[in-house]
Amino acid sequence: MAGQRVEVDGGIMEGGGQILRVSTALSCLLGLPLRVQKIRAGRSTPGLRPQHLSGLEMIRDLCDGRLEGAEIGSTEIIFTPEKIRGGFHTADTKTAGSVCLLMQVSMPCVLFAASPSELRLKGGTNAEMAPQIDYTVKVFKPIVEKFGFKFNCDIKMRGYYPKGGGEVIVQMSPVKQLNPINLTDRGSVTKIYGRAFVAGVLPLKVAKDMVAAAVRSIRKEIRDLHVNIQPVQEPKDQAFGNGNGIIIIAETSTGCLIAGSSLGKRGVNADKVGIDAAEMLLANLRHGGAVDEYLQDQLIIFMALANGTSRIKTGPITLHTQTAIHFAEQLTKAKFTVKKSEDGEDASKDTYIIECQGVGMTNPYL
Known about the structure:
By secondary structure, the chain is α/β, with parallel strands linked by helices.
């Protein structure tokens, strides 16, 4: 079923692991052989890192494919996919590489598998430069399920930088097709809630300080809503290593979920972590989008595959989103348009509508 090989330049635009994730997932889905060159060309440590390698190997295993050039530091891979099969698969970054990014690359593929899948993903659950698992479960999951599928995500163990050691099990059944989505009506914020955690040797006071600072920050702009952020000490048997962080979610009258989050680092005081998350949430609320800046790029691949026209209203278009659109168009022939929203008060804000005519991918095995 292999068609003409697709050539991807891994050094343009976002120029990182994301190009690899989008292009290999789509190559697997479409049965297109793929060569990616200049992988992470502009990064301080160019080429494949352990987390990219484990993602590639999982995709290869999901579709019994062939992978050439896949070793740490390699800047070029050739991937030849075969048919996608469900079943049990494991991916282990062996580092604090993000399990959420592993989920991002594998999820579109297993939706179009021949049978249900169970993915055991190991690495960091709350890691830098990636969505935190709490974001994936509380924001990404309910929104992405609007495309017409359900998945289950069981957090067995949380893991943090630098050790990793986290483990998440994802179960999902295949679908025949994906429905398009329309997320253009933000509505008004009806509640704000969240979770501030400490793990390992860090005292609960750190979580309480993150909460207090975040609440103070939010109060400056939003006075009429109760802000309910729970401080949590992760149980010893459910967290590996030390870490702290916070996620704050605003829910709206139309069911939109907008978030801000932040992770603690050595030498950064708890107040700053709380304030950073609050400011990220407030910035995402100001621009009037129906999805936040982190959901934008994660929805692109699903929009491209859906059967019909999807629309999402967002704030400023991120480089990750531009990159996802570029490669989704290159590989699937889906057509995206990005327009400034002139709707009501949006005109004065930095608000955009991303529209996509999806390709209506059909699962050949169902």
